[in-house]
Amino acid sequence: MPETPEVAFNCSVENSTENGVKVTTVRCHGRLINQTAGEVRDIVKPLIPQGGIIVIDLNDVTFLDSLGLGTLVGLKVSAINEGYCQLRLENLTPRLQELLKLTNLTKLFGS
């Protein structure tokens, strides 16, 4: 089945350093949903053991469903368990900020 525009999703990865610390920014574009959440997990999960800071930029995420949110929570928990990796969410839309509040995840992500 061909990919429909509503499900189109992609991530780009940029590496930099901030005060001598490795920073990897994963910019997500599109709908972070059931069919696309695996892509984020597959990109971010191998970065966690490398340490440093991982920033997931959600500025261009147009929709987030429960599986997408669950994937972000799972990645955050993995980063916490590794101990030497910080995972942050950045550029959340007001709608995503409200979703974190409604699900009591604001403290977990420090938003």
From TrEMBL:
Q: Name one Pfam family in it.
A: STAS
Per the UniProt entry, the signal peptide is: none
Q: Which domain of life is it from?
A: Bacteria
A GO MF term: anti-sigma factor antagonist activity
* Lineage of the organism: Bacteria, Pseudomonadati, Acidobacteriota, Terriglobia, Terriglobales
The protein's name in its UniProt record: STAS domain-containing protein
Q: What are the residue boundaries of the STAS domain, all occurrences included? A: 23-111
